Acyl-coenzyme A oxidase
Amino acid sequence: MSVNPDIQVERDTATFRSIDVTHMLDGSPEATNQRRIRQKQIGDDPQINRRNIIFMSHEERYEAAIARGLRIEQLKAEHDWDIMDENNAIMWCFSDIAMFVHKVMFIPAIERLGNKEQHDKWLPLAIDHKILGTYAQTELGHGTFLRGLEMEARYDKSTEEFVISTPKHSSMKWWPGSLGHSSSHAVLLATLYIDDQNCGMQPFIVQLRDLNTWKPLPGVEVGGIGPKMALATTDNGFLVLNNVRIPRDQMLMKYAQVSKDGKFTKSGAAKANYSTMMLVRVGIAHSCYFSLAVGATIVTRYSAVRRQGEIKPGAPEVKILDYQTQQLKVIPSIATAYAFHFCKEHLKWYYIETFQQIQQNDFSGLPEIHCVTSGLKAYMSDIATAQLETLRRACGGNGYLLSNGITNTYIQTLALPTVEGENTVLYLQVARYLMKCLKVAATGEAVKGSLSYMNEKIKTPYTSGLVTREDYSNVKKLLKLYQNMTVRLTQKAGDHLNKLHVSGQPKYEAWNNTSVQLVNAAKAYCQTYVLGMNIEGLSTQAVDLPGDALEVIHQLCVFYALHGITEQSGNFLETGCINITELHIIQQEAQEMMAKIRKNAVALVDAFDIPDNLLNSTLGCYDGNAYQHLYDSAKSDPMNQKQVLPAFEKYIKPMLQGKHTSKL
Ligand SMILES: CCC/C=C/C(=O)SCCNC(=O)CCNC(=O)[C@H](O)C(C)(C)COP(=O)([O-])OP(=O)([O-])OC[C@H]1O[C@@H](n2cnc3c(N)ncnc32)[C@H](O)[C@@H]1OP(=O)([O-])[O-]
Ligand SMILES: Cc1cc2nc3c(=O)[nH]c(=O)nc-3n(C[C@H](O)[C@H](O)[C@H](O)COP(=O)(O)OP(=O)(O)OC[C@H]3O[C@@H](n4cnc5c(N)ncnc54)[C@H](O)[C@@H]3O)c2cc1C
């Protein structure tokens, strides 16, 4: 099929070469080649390809997802993939892989929470798929408040076993992925009791199913929790344990230990047992980038080939991408996807470095990385889901079809603001950290890390520093505005907290009565962080780009900063970080920048280099022939393989012939 001329012209008139930017996104031309090879191995494989999933039943999708998971294992062995390759493969399949919790949580939990003997025993079994596992933490009654977990593990000194039980409905495990039908084992988080003393939430390895018959073991009641909005293939489950006994060495004992005679000891940081969640939060940041890149690719290409209506009366119908309002739906998502790229790259290296320190028992970096990973998981998933919905609607009627590729991406991504810590709760964790830093700054001590900008005193009366027109595209000056806004919102929340406390409210009550302001400050911190990483990326990852490409990536960053101010203008005005005249100029500048970026919109999404067979979209194919692909997809619907469906004989015909009764 030839390329649609409407999309070709976009590529011909772009001011830079997409491939240069693709190399930057991958890290190097070699890395691009390597990724393409991997994506081809996945996309071309009939067992992995997700082309027909929209026509499958729940059970068919589940089975296909198991087969996909297995095939990925075979490819991994055949092509010598490393862990990054494997995680990318899961992401490129949009997590449409049953048992992926085994990879992304069960194994990492054993690695992080187990001691050497436990590694030696369990990891080979898990890595070789001799056992399949889930991460069972959430209960029907508690997902967020982990200190409230009710499943009990009571140590029985006489037999050197833990007895695990589910005292009531609210204490059953509820939600763990792959628990329903696909796990033989669980890393199960339960509250440990020794002689009735509560020793906090601890991890245990519990076998759930017989490895030959797959039937639940005695005392284990397990099943699926029912159909969900999406993620049909991740069989989330429930679990009730009736006095199930496990040996003492099946408590994962890296950070807390129980001796044979029942002595409880702890090593490492208080929240070390939460470290698996931190890893997954980093992975979620990466998924947010990918989902947004997918959405932006589909909708930008579709907007460049769909013509509807006229701008100049009587002139030919225009591409919908030429409407300024459509640009406002599409361009922010492109700019955000690029900002998220820089941010997730930073986060990956930051996590690896800090994890290495933790492995050496240096926990000093834990509070900051907990703040950053919690905040970015929350912020990036909030923004990604909001923008995906805007993008989906930007496709008009066809945005409601499953074959468009974006609907599925959107509803899958909708899980991310909830999993691994509900977003509001995570913002409140960030706020805790902000308040601590505020206290440090107030004592005159230097605040370190991502909030070191708190050390600079904001002069009053304040001026924004935006003097010349050039200042409005100076990303460092714009970043300063964001930083000042964050500091002021933090101070405002801190002042409110103190005021309530001084007026007699206990600290916890004052905290709850300030939580809206605290969350607002936390979001500002996250937005500032992402912009900071975007700017850092310009001078690190993007610095070797040819001049024309660097200019476009720079424009995106400026737009990201300006657009963010227009979206959050209330915060910027309220904190006095800009005045109304400056806001008007910023709005104007943002619109002008958007018009410049529009010219390169298709080339910018081409640079994400997501192949058609992973994009899986009728609207967003590289060739721009959306109408042909929509028609082909409709024709391939199994319901269209018969000209007359059985419902005709059964119901419609009798009705037409007046033979129907009210009882049907
Ligand atoms: C693939 C997708 C599948 C999905 C899987 C899932 O969803 S799996 C299920 C996913 N489930 C979830 O994600 C559950 C979400 N819930 C949680 O993570 C926790 O219950 C909580 C963090 C909300 C509160 O916890 P709490 O009541 O025990 O804590 P607190 O309020 O008493 O004290 C807070 C103190 O602890 C610190 N700290 C906290 N976390 C960490 C950390 N990771 N590291 C380091 N530190 C951490 C924090 O800085 C603060 O320090 P401060 O200020 O005192 O010096
Ligand atoms: C698709 C999916 C997959 C999942 N996979 C797993 C898995 O593999 N393993 C696992 O263990 N779990 C899993 N979960 C569970 C998930 O981690 C929890 O649902 C999540 O942590 C939110 O907890 P919750 O359901 O208790 O929400 P709740 O805490 O009940 O949230 C409800 C509301 O209460 C608010 N709220 C709660 N506490 C506070 C507070 N302190 N301050 C202010 N507001 C508050 C929240 O902001 C939210 O608005 C999964 C969930 C989903 C949807």
